[in-house]
Amino acid sequence: MAALLCRGAWGNPSGVLQSLAKNKVQPVSWIRQKFTRSRIPESVFQPRPGDHEKYGGDPEQPHKLHLISRIRSGRRRPYWEKDMIKYLGLEKRFEPVVHKNIPSVNAKLKVIKHLVSIKPLKLPHGIPTEEEMSDCYLNSKGELIIRRRLQPVEQKTIDSS
After folding, report:
1. Which of 19, 29, 52, 143 could bridge across to 122 with cysteines, CB 3.0–4.6 Å?
2. What's the predicted TM-score (pTM) here?
3. How does pLDDT run across 101-147, given as a tens digit for each residue?
4. Rounded distance between C-alpha atoms, residue 38 and residue 45, angstroms
5. Count of beta carbons in the 10 Å neighbourhood of residue 119
6. How does 22-50 read in b/e, with b if 16+ C-beta sit within 10 Å?
7. CA proximity to 146, closest of 117, 124, 161
């Protein structure tokens, strides 16, 4: 019997393929490794010393907020990348989302960095107050602009004595 009797991992409860010709048991662990997150090397999640010089920025004074927009599709991507896109609120393409620049968010962004565009949120007029929040907008350069509305001027009486 030189033919191989191949029962897939779904047919054999122990998850192995058997060969009748050689009576050897061959594990099919490559199937599980191919489609799970464990294939991503740990070096992807570690900080690299040259990142600040490459992308610009000051490690002593990092920006406080990220302006993130999804630029590539999440279709035909692994489930963990789709979950991360949904978790970060990036369902619509090219729609900017603001997140804090903290290690937990940065670790999530590193998983989908090939699908998103990350820019620092610039605040040229400073952090807006609650009254100014209704007058703020994001421009295409990633700046939060406060459109200051003119307040009515009170009329002062002039004394001519």
Report:
1. 143
2. 0.59
3. 999 999 999 999 999 999 999 888 888 899 888 889 999 888 999 98
4. 12
5. 15
6. eeeeeeeeeeeeeeeeeeeeeeeeeeeee
7. 124
